[in-house]
């Protein structure tokens, strides 16, 4: 009898302890899995793949800014001032089109008030398989609607410690991370020619111009149709502001011109543009033909990543319809790219690098 009583008491105590543990995490909820932030608590937002899903499902907003690290330097305060409404920012560093689109569709499903999406389309991701995801360990148990696998969240020692951190930061007078600050890296790096050229490994000159193969075209169209235009077709009530990430002239030299892929790249862009322009509620922008941007290496920390000032300008440009591609002007835009980057004096960049050694 004593053994039975002890067993029942021990079992009951264990259940109560587990319930208290889970209840504490559910109440604080540092990943916003169950609810929006509790008023007055100093939540730290710094983990995109664990917190972005909860942000789009439980925060109040009508504008979503999302994409790869190219969107990390946007400020939601600037976006709100330009476009009106209330925005949230949910970048995915290294995010593929598939990962970002799945997130965007989760936001659309969760938020009937969503009216505007601002999203970067990384040109280096065009030819990816439509289902490609390049990040291991994505916490899908936070993304689905299955309550049974929430055990990985509510009985997680690290999450318990994060909940403690929220209360500790609150007691010490800290504030919740703003979306202007969230994953913003602009102030963490140096910019300019020296920085960019430190990444600049110039390949040998290609011997002939490559052509976009049929299989590459079909893979690209599959990627764009599933992960870019499908949501727009299904949700005509939402306006999608999409822009191509403006890489520097060094990127064009290393990745496009030197390997003999300029015609390939133009054909690739044309394939993507023509598919996207079939959707009337997508506003597509590109700034690749802005030489004052792409050829001024003071805007870049490496061949592709631009600074916070350019992020601010991109918001302003999209609001003012600067750089918008339409059915009427996109072929002229492609011709400008072909002529400009095809004739650019890349040797001068390489010479300056050698002289800097």
Cα separation of the termini: 84 Å
Number of strands: 6
Strand content: 5-15%
Strand numbers in spatial order across the main sheet: 2-1-3-4-5-6
For the largest beta-sheet, the strand count, sense and barrel status come to: 6 strands, mixed
Tell me the radius of gyration. 24 Å
User: Which word captures the global form?
Assistant: elongated
Structural class: alpha/beta
On the 0 to 100 scale, the average pLDDT is 94
Low-confidence stretches: none
Helix content: 40-55%
> Helical region count?
15
Run of helices and strands: HHEHEHEHHHHHEHHEHHEHH
Q: Can you describe what's shown?
A:
The protein has 357 residues and is an alpha/beta fold. It has helices at 2-28, 48-58, 76-83, 97-110, 140-143, 151-154, 157-171, 193-197, 214-234, 249-257, 262-276, 291-294, 308-319, 330-343, 346-356, and strands spanning 63-67, 87-91, 116-121, 239-244, 282-285, 324-325. Strand 1 (63-67), helix 3 (76-83) and strand 2 (87-91) form a beta-alpha-beta unit. It is elongated, with a radius of gyration of 24 Å. The mean pLDDT is 94.
Question: Can you give me a brief rundown of this structure?
Answer:
This protein is an alpha/beta fold. It has helices at residues 2-28, 48-58, 76-83, 97-110, 140-143, 151-154, 157-171, 193-197, 214-234, 249-257, 262-276, 291-294, 308-319, 330-343, 346-356; strands at residues 63-67, 87-91, 116-121, 239-244, 282-285, 324-325.
